[in-house]
Design a protein that fits this description.
Blueprint: H1 13-18, H2 20-24, H3 30-40, H4 44-60, H5 72-83, H6 95-108, H7 113-116, E1 119-126, E2 129-136, H8 137-154, H9 175-185, H10 195-211, E3 220-222, E4 227-229, H11 230-251, H12 261-284, E5 303-312, E6 317-322, E7 329-342, H13 343-350, E8 362-365, H14 367-378
Parallel strand pairs: 5-7
Antiparallel strand pairs: 1-2, 3-4, 5-6, 7-8
Helix pairs in contact: 5-6, 6-10, 6-11, 8-9, 8-10, 8-11, 11-12, 12-13, 12-14
Length: 383
């Protein structure tokens, strides 16, 4: 024989009403359930209450997974950055740095000790040779803190290396020297404690340039053996922040997206504007040759042989790169070569993460000019 149906209990209205919550959660005994359901057939007030409770319980049991998508934090942050106007506007040329430091800080938010000590390999090109240096996630943040300190000191803010022995020596004036000095001064490998000073410094840089109303953009920032105007230095630091954030994300197996297209376009533009000077420096170092059909130098402001650099994708555009002198003007009429690259691929080439031979390049024209420009782009990279 089948199981007998439970006999409803003889319970008062108040007791039955008190059982409605347990009934909605399916936590009543069989006899209590039978008593409640019999009561609901004749009591409109309790029936309405039972219906509301069942609907509320339904909201507590979502059928879909509640795990957040790994890219959700980045999407929310990008949405906030693009829609919420700050009380004191950030200068347009500092916006990429503001966005990239915020994105990296969000990535670091939930890192535990294992992630902070995860090995990271910094990669760049030096003398046309792929070079690398092993560090940790915390070591990368210490590197960003040290190099961003170049802008901090130019703005009159505290230098994070002020207390580091030997940091003022001539050999430590550039990015690599400052980083090595910071690492040497650490008695132990850098830990999560480096995040606070880096975060405070990046906020301080954005606040300071914002309070100036953007008028300090032309201030020179010395990098040791060269200098950049502040607006370009902030772009340079935004680029480095993104590149090293990708290094960190790769080390901890976490997805990380490229910068917003409008910011990526500015980073590409900075690299394109630096290429003529880098080509000239490479000629002086014997790493490339001047054009055989034109003089080594072109008068300042005159059109000269050029390479047409076409960057594809949402951040793309076209740049005419003078080949024979940094003072020359790019000329479409005198273009001797054409190179086409995806925007992210070009940036990874300029970061030293892709070799000139391995870059996915569409090209045509003067082979030597193409080789010189691709190697010049790779030599923009540094530790």
């Amino acid at each position: 024989m089948g199981d007998l149906a439970p006999v409803p209990l003889d319970l008062s209205h108040d007791v039955l009403k008190s059982l409605l919550g347990a009934w909605a959660l399916a936590a009543c005994s069989a006899a209590e359930t039978a008593a409640v359901e019999e009561h609901l057939g004749g009591c409109g007030g309790c029936a309405d209450e039972a219906r509301r409770l069942r609907e509320a319980v339904g909201l507590l049991h979502q059928p879909e997974s509640l795990d957040l998508a790994p890219s959700l934090r980045t999407r929310v942050l990008e949405g906030c950055l693009s829609r919420r106007p700050p009380r004191i506007p950030v200068p347009d040329w500092a916006a990429p740095y503001d966005a990239e430091t915020a994105r990296l800080d969000a990535l670091l938010q939930d890192f535990g000790d294992a992630e902070w000590h995860a090995p990271v390999r910094l990669r760049w090109f030096e003398a046309d040779t792929a070079t690398s240096r092993r560090t940790t996630v915390a070591g990368v943040i210490a590197h960003l803190l040290s190099v961003d300190g170049l802008i901090a000191t130019a703005l009159g803010l505290a230098d994070p290396l002020a207390e580091v022995a030997g940091a003022a020596d001539p050999g430590t004036l550039g990015p690599a020297g400052r980083t090595e000095a910071f690492w040497r001064a650490s008695h132990f490998p850098p830990t999560r404690s480096v995040r606070g000073p880096w975060r405070e410094q990046s906020h301080g840089l954005v606040r300071t340039v914002s309070f100036t109303g953007g008028h300090a953009g032309g201030l020179e920032v010395p990098y040791g053996d060269f200098a950049l105007p502040l607006h370009d230095a902030m772009l340079d630091r935004a680029f480095e922040c993104w590149v090293h954030a990708e290094d960190i994300a790769e080390a901890v197996d976490y997805p990380y997206q490229p910068p917003a297209p409008r910011h990526l376009n500015r980073m590409i533009d900075l690299a394109a504007r630096l290429l003529p000077a880098v080509l000239a420096e490479r000629r002086r170092a014997g790493l490339s040759e001047p054009g055989r059909r034109t003089p080594h130098l072109v008068p300042a402001g005159a059109p000269g042989r050029s390479l047409r650099l076409e960057i594809e994708g949402a951040a793309g555009g076209e740049w005419l790169i003078p080949l024979d002198s940094p003072a020359a003007v790019g000329s479409a009429d005198l273009a001797v070569a054409h190179v086409a690259l995806d925007g992210v691929e070009f940036c990874r080439l300029a970061a030293g993460h892709v070799s000139p031979e391995d870059a996915a390049v569409g090209q045509g024209g003067d082979r030597q000019a193409i080789r010189d420009v691709l190697y010049a782009a790779a030599s923009l990279s540094r530790m």
